[in-house]
Amino acid sequence: MKESKLIGKLNETDKKINAISRVLQRLIQDVSKLETLANGTLSSLQMFMGEDEWNKLVEKMKKLQEKNKEKKLETK
To answer: Contact 51/59 with Cβ under 8 angstroms?
Structure first.
C-alpha cells in the first residue's frame, strides 16, 4: 500500500515537472521572439533617423544613464 502511494506521488510529481518544463520552454521562446522584435525595431529606428541623429541620441542616453547611476550612488 505504501509503495503504491509513493509511486502515485512520484508520477504526479513527474507530470508537474514536465508541465513546468513546457512552460519554461515556451517562456524562453517568447523572450527570444521579443529580443528579435526589439532588435528589428531599433534597427528600423536607426535607419529612419540616420547615423548622425542616432549617434547623438545614443550619447544623450549614455549621459542620462550616468546621471542616474550617480544619483543612485548618492542616495545609498
So the answer is: no
CB burial of 13-27 (b: ≥16 within 10 Å; e: otherwise) equals eeeeeeeeeeeeeee
Name which of 20, 50, 63, 33 is nearest 12 in CA terms: 20
Cα separations (Å) of 61 from 2, 3, 48, 67?
64, 63, 18, 10
Query: Is 1's pLDDT higher than 80?
Result: no
46 and 54 Cβ atoms separated by less than 8 Å: yes
pLDDT in the model for residue 45 = 92
Domain boundaries, the chain: 2-75
